Amino acid sequence: MANHTQAAFEKQPMWAGGRSPFNVSYGKLMMWIFLLSDAFTFSSLLTQYGAQRFSNVVTPITTKWPDPASIFNHFPGMHGFHLPLLFVSVMTFILIMSSVTMVLAVEAGHRNSKKEVEKYMIMTIIGGAMFLGCQAWEWSTFIHEGARLNHNMFGITEQGYKHLASVKFGDHFEWADGDRTFGPVPFAALFFIVTGFHGFHVFSGVVINVVVYIMAKRGVFDRRGHYEMVEKAGLYWHFVDLVWVFVFTFFYLI
Q1: What count of other Cβ atoms lies within 10 Å of the Cβ of residue 156?
Q2: 3-class SS at 148?
Q3: 155 sits in which H/E element
């Protein structure tokens, strides 16, 4: 009886461990562990941002923390119009929609529908590339406006706040002399660091999705008999989307 039990145990998959405590494959478990560690990193960065913002002290040189709605008010092809947070809202919508197409790709993988997996993976890749393009435009505009890692000219004076209060959504708006002054340096520095770190994750996700698409196209998953790789890539992509919700809230809304 003992020999029969030992033989049955040895025939099980390596990860089974006799009786697996997890109803998940080794690859997916490792992805969850990686995402958990990455969540700690993003949490630390956002905590630092919050600490810097709410400990900001107004001095004779620097003003209070800049108002995101007055800074991120540009839109491609509509220069000079006051469109607060409209462009970043479009960016957010694009990224969320790419998460939807990734869900559809994973669901198609569960049905072993090769063509649908390919279609939705392409749509997800396009969405990620569009988001990166939008972020590159936003960075270039932000830098052109005077933002640097060690310099911030987005402090708003009392005159500047009065100017902003007189402008409505869609009105023509240009900063006047005396509207802006030196602001807290961590504002621009943390913006570049956190959004850049997130952008690197999006870029990595696009590369991973391209690899998964090529594998699906070549029939690798059909030969394996499952599309678990699509699901693991989906976990990473959904994490990137979820993190952006927090970045968007911290940097643009609060």
Answers
A1: 22
A2: strand
A3: strand 155-156
Task: Tell me the mean pLDDT in the region 207-233.
Answer: 94
All domains in the chain, ordered by first residue: 31-253 (1.20.120.80)
Question: What number of other Cβ atoms are within 10 A of residue 221's Cβ?
Answer: 20
Helix or strand run (H / E) with residue 180: strand 180-181
What is the band of 1 on the pLDDT scale with cuts at 50, 70, 90? very low
> Cβ distance 83 to 71 under 8 Å?
no
Q: What is the distance between the alpha carbons of residues 231 and 105, in angstroms, rounded to a whole number? A: 8
Question: What does the block give as tokens for 139?
Answer: 């960075």
| Residue 13: pLDDT band with limits 50, 70, 90 | low
* Residues 119-141 pLDDT 10s: 999 999 999 999 999 999 999 99
Q: What are phi and psi of 148, to 5 degrees?
A: -140, 165
Query: Do residues 81 and 172 make contact, with C-beta atoms less than 8 angstroms apart?
Result: yes
Nearest one of 225, 18, 217, 248 to 122, comparing CA atoms: 217
